[in-house]
Write a structure and sequence with these properties.
The protein is an alpha+beta fold and 336 residues long. It is 34% helix and 33% strand. The chain contains 9 helices and 13 strands. Strands 5, 6, 7, 8, 9, 10, 11, 12 and 13 form a 9-stranded antiparallel β-sheet that branches. The chain has a 4-stranded parallel β-sheet with strand order 2-1-3-4, sandwiched between helices. Helix 2 packs across helix 3. It starts with a strand and ends with a helix.
């Protein structure tokens, strides 16, 4: 197994790079594993690094993106450019050094993603991807209010006086003052388009966005669907009443069904009234049309040792609980 680390020198304002490079060297040399490191300056350099290592590999290889969700998304996009035969032996991991790091929130024990030794001892886990025009999204596509927040966050994130974890919140406040709307013709699974006047829409593979907002609590990385939420273009006051619930994932309780539409689909097509900013895993693109579809089990994600998808972890805890109940029943019956 070879481990290829792709380090974004700008992630986290560059404050973590030196420490991560030191950790990579210590862990890989200590374990005696084959590895290489690229501190990437541009996408072409990263593409060559991935192609060269994939072509030279005589066994399994893992490309570990050391950066934010955008770095992970770019790494996956470049891996998907390889042939299906090459991808059979490839997994993609992440050391979350970005501002939001929302993708890893879909898993237990997020801090273990920083543990390079745990990365080396990890295992591969197949997940879906969402094809988004010519891109791939591993986590979430945001349009409307959320994407405008990302625009502001990108600018604010460069300010040295603002803690990077607060950049999204500050961007949210500024966007709320302006409250841009979103007029779109929305079609799902080939049905007739509906005209919608929205505040925002999320089209999700994962459950989290914006540095911890549980916007799509019913999303799954493996169910073969895009989890969609649309929010009507309501007043600022009404939206403010929703923000806390939108963050903790309780906004789909049914109380807000007149405002929020939630559904799953395999395809979604959006046509906007004008060129619109779209956030694809935190990276901005501008387009008048958005076409999304699910690519099932498209990529193998490398999870550090001790990390599980939250859905699987919950199931295992439930199974353990059922086993304990069954044991107590058996014991009680036996005692009789």
């Amino acid at each position: 197994m070879k481990y290829c680390f792709i380090v974004n020198p700008l992630a986290g304002k560059g404050k973590m790079v030196e420490g991560v490079l030191s950790d990579i060297s210590a862990a890989c040399e200590g374990a005696g594993v084959d590895h290489s490191v690229l501190v990437s300056r541009n996408i072409d350099e990263t593409r060559d690094f991935i192609r060269d290592n994939a072509a030279a590999a005589d066994g399994e290889i893992s490309f570990i993106a050391c950066g934010g969700d955008g770095t992970l998304c770019q790494t996956i996009l470049l891996v998907m450019e390889l042939s299906a035969e090459q991808r059979e032996n490839i997994s993609v991991g992440v050391v979350p050094m970005g501002t939001g790091n929302d993708f890893v929130s879909n898993f237990t024990d997020k801090e273990r993603f920083f543990n390079i030794e745990a990365q080396i001892k990890g295992s591969a886990y197949e997940i879906d991807l969402v094809k988004c025009n010519d891109l791939y999204s591993v986590n979430m596509v945001n349009v409307g209010f959320d994407s405008h927040v990302v625009c502001k966050k990108e600018r604010l994130g460069k300010k040295k006086w603002l803690p990077r974890k607060l950049a999204y919140i500050a961007g949210l406040v500024i966007t709320l003052v302006r409250k841009p709307g979103l007029k779109v013709d929305f079609s799902r699974d080939g049905e007739k388009p509906e005209k919608r006047d929205l505040l925002l829409t999320t089209l999700a593979n994962g459950a989290f966005c914006g540095g911890g907002f549980n916007s799509n609590p019913n999303a799954s990385l493996t169910d073969g669907n895009i989890d969609c939420i649309t929010v009507k273009n309501v007043s600022r006051l009404k939206f403010l009443s929703l923000v806390g619930k939108y963050k903790n994932g309780t906004h789909l309780s049914g109380k807000y069904d007149s405002i929020i539409d939630h559904f799953k689909c395999r395809k979604a097509d959006l046509v906007f009234s004008e060129e619109t900013p779209v956030s694809v895993d935190g990276e901005l693109v501008y387009t008048k049309e958005l076409h999304l579809s699910v690519d099932e089990k498209a990529i193998k994600i490398r999870l550090p040792e001790g990390v599980l998808p939250k859905v699987r972890a919950i199931k295992e805890r439930l199974d353990e609980g059922v086993e304990k109940i069954e044991e107590k029943i058996a014991t009680a019956v036996g005692a009789r």
